[in-house]
Design a protein that fits this description.
The protein is mainly alpha-helical. It has one domain. It contains 8 helices and no strands.
Length: 223
């Protein structure tokens, strides 16, 4: 029994660290692309890495947020950012690098947040998926807002839907599988779907009016 608990905790820790590293890399690369100074890149990377987790902890009542009680995530984010300073030219050779790391972070945080919500007796599929979505997209939304970009979740990419699907997989799979299997399934589904969206261009249609097109055969509005 104790061995199973330790195994679950190990899987939990691995996913948390994966999420922190992945989002820190995406935040640092975004800051470098936007030509921020060293401090700006560091702040953006840390905010991206911990932003979703802070929102999650506040919502479920896990206060003060874990990030403020344990500096480990700050340290990991800082170390990762320093590593990106020396490797960003190599990382930028690969297309969609930021989005790939974003997908990994999304999957990791979706899995850990959904599981944490269940552990706090929030045993409702709606609440669990909501917490997972807020955690998964929170850091990325804050990152994009800080650099004056429209967040991915509000653009064409099917972003939040992958988090919802992953959280639902964890919620229902825990009824049939014990241990860390639901965590692995949630991570695999969320990350896999997100990578498929990137590779195959799956997205929602964009609603709007093309300003260059004439309205009703060149008729002026109000005429």
């Amino acid at each position: 029994m104790r061995g199973e608990a330790e195994k679950n905790m190990t899987a939990w820790n691995v996913f948390e660290i994966m999420g922190i590293v992945a989002f820190a890399v995406s935040g640092a690369l975004t800051g470098i692309q936007k030509r921020l100074d060293v401090f700006g890149v560091l702040v953006l990377a840390i905010t991206t890495a911990i932003g979703g987790g802070v929102l999650r902890d506040v919502i479920i009542g896990n206060t003060p947020p874990l990030t403020f009680r344990d500096p480990t995530f700050f340290i990991i984010s800082s170390v990762v950012t320093i590593g990106v300073f020396f490797t960003y030219r190599w990382l930028e050779q690969y297309k969609h690098t930021i989005q790939i790391f974003d997908a990994i972070g999304l999957g990791a945080f979706t899995a850990t947040s959904a599981k944490l919500a269940i552990q706090h007796n929030l045993d409702s599929v709606f609440i669990i998926t909501t917490v997972a979505v807020i955690t998964g997209i929170g850091g990325s939304v804050i990152r994009d807002v800080l650099v004056k970009e429209i967040p991915y979740v509000f653009r064409q990419e099917v972003y939040a839907i992958t988090t919802i699907m992953g959280a639902m997989v964890l919620y229902y799979s825990q009824m049939y599988f014990a241990g860390s299997i639901p965590l692995y399934l949630c991570f695999g589904v969320t990350t896999g779907l997100r990578l498929c969206c990137i590779k195959y261009g799956w997205n929602f249609p964009v609603l709007g009016i093309d300003s260059e097109k004439p309205v009703s055969g060149n008729r002026k509005l109000g005429s």
